[in-house]
Specification:
Elements lengths: L2 E5 L6 E6 L6 H4 L7 E7 L3 H14 L3 E7 L8 H13 L8 E5 L1 H13 L6 E5 L2 H7 L4 E6 L2 E8 L4 E5 L8 H18 L1 H15 L3 H21 L14 H10 L7 H18 L5 H13 L11 H9 L11 E6 L2 E5 L4 H11 L2
Parallel strand pairs: 2-9, 3-4, 3-5, 5-6, 6-9
Antiparallel strand pairs: 1-2, 7-8, 10-11
Helix pairs in contact: 3-4, 5-6, 5-8, 6-7, 6-8, 6-10, 7-8, 9-10, 9-12, 10-11, 10-13
The protein binds nicotinamide-adenine-dinucleotide and glycine.
């Protein structure tokens, strides 16, 4: 059975459907196919795995499918690739009502989403995420973007999809390292607003990594529920939505310092969450046992709990360039308890430095 939840955003509301075999079931797509044609945007890795299955399912439903197959990698999440999507849409004579279907991980989802936001001032977008990270995070909530040479996701738009259709079977072909990186974001939801989910993960982490179907479905649903609740409360990140960035300010600095070459985003976020937890402990909010529980769970998930050797001064300099800086002030997402994140501007610099020093190198 498929699980369905609703992202309630008034006229921009949409369902998230989670289940096995959704890719092959045109039924799941039918309500969102607003024209007789659809354009699937994917990449050279995902296309050989899933494009023909999805195309066949849509065609069985009477939808003609064209595809745009892009190169694979974060380094292609840029203006040139976006232009290529538009060139292909022009060549295909895609219309304003032709849905764009993003089939792939977060890179494809973010880029296709931004293309949909711009194409003829807004084409329908269907997200079909195929990495765990994309299934629990990037496909939900409407953040779309490409990178600028000077920074990640600097050019983008909030643009909600018409539907997020999650076939959990696609995770079977995902490299284990990518799966673990997605698990970091799953653990994040437990930490920021759902202590019961954190505890559930402590009981089911091995089942999740082994891709036990019921465990995967439950983890994806509970993650999406948490993400949807935050997005509904603060769609354009005026405040609360920033809690979704727990560990990300530290994580981005680690990714930038290592030139995006050695650390996957989720791995850097895992270390970033450890630093945030340690700052929270030093402020007297988390107990030593809370920090140990997080460390234990990340280790069982096969994620790093210590970062590379980066000087604290370099971390500060990188973090001050983060998108989350507001009027020159860095804001940190910290934890009052497991399951309760807060956004803090006034954190003593030496407390943050001490936590970073302890966790890096
Ligand atoms: P990714 O899209 O690069 O996918 C990781 C790798 O897995 C790629 O090589 C991809 O081709 C491959 N892949 C995808 N699905 C597969 C499958 N089923 N089987 C085998 N291989 C598969 O990376 P990601 O971790 O999915 O996403 C990272 C991106 O998401 C970043 O660009 C980040 O900025 C963005 N992001 C966006 C949001 C948001 O709210 N929009 C949130 C978090 C991250
Ligand atoms: N991944 C952060 C957000 O969606 O806000």
């Amino acid at each position: 059975m498929w699980r369905t939840l609703n992202v309630a955003l008034g006229g921009r509301s949409y369902p998230i459907v989670i289940g096995r075999g959704i890719l092959e079931a045109g039924d799941a797509f039918a309500p969102f196919l607003t024209s007789k044609r659809a354009v699937v945007v994917t990449n050279v890795t995902v296309a050989p795995l899933y494009l023909s299955r999805l195309t066949a399912a849509l065609e069985r439903h009477g939808t003609a499918v064209a595809s745009v197959v892009l190169p694979d990698g974060e380094r292609y999440k840029n203006w040139e690739t976006l232009q290529r999507i538009f060139d292909e849409l022009v060549a295909l004579r895609a219309e304003r009502h032709t849905p764009l279907v993003a089939l792939g991980g977060g890179v494809i989802g973010d880029m296709t989403g931004f293309a949909a936001a711009c194409w003829q001032r807004g084409a329908p977008l269907i997200q079909v995420p195929t990495t765990l990270l994309a299934q629990v995070d990037s496909s939900v909530g409407g953040k779309t973007a490409i990178n600028h040479p000077q920074g990640k996701n600097l050019i983008g738009a909030f643009y909600q999809p018409r539907a997020v259709l999650i076939d959990t079977e696609t995770l079977q072909t995902l490299p284990i390292r990518e799966l673990r990186a997605g698990v970091a974001e799953v653990i994040k939801y437990g930490l920021i607003r759902d202590s019961a989910f954190f505890e559930w993960l402590e009981h089911h982490i091995e089942g999740l990594l082994a891709l036990e179907p019921e465990v995967v479905a439950e983890a994806v649903e509970r993650s999406c529920r948490n993400k949807a609740a935050v997005v509904i409360a603060d769609e354009t990140e005026q405040g609360e939505r920033a809690i979704l960035n727990l560990g990300h300010t530290f994580g981005h600095a680690i990714e930038t310092a290592t030139r995006y070459e050695t650390w996957l985003h989720g791995e850097a976020v895992a270390v970033g969450m450890m630093i945030a937890a340690e700052v929270s402990w030093r402020l007297g909010w988390l107990t030593e046992n809370d920090v140990a529980r997080l460390e234990g769970l990340l280790i069982r998930a096969g994620l790093p709990v210590r970062g590379p050797q980066i000087a604290v001064e370099e971390m500060w300099s990188l973090m001050r360039g983060d998108k989350k800086v507001k009027e020159g002030q860095l804001r940190f997402v910290l934890l009052k308890a497991i399951g309760k994140a807060v956004i803090c501007a006034e954190v003593p610099q030496e407390v943050v430095s001490a936590a970073m020093r302890h966790r890096l190198g």
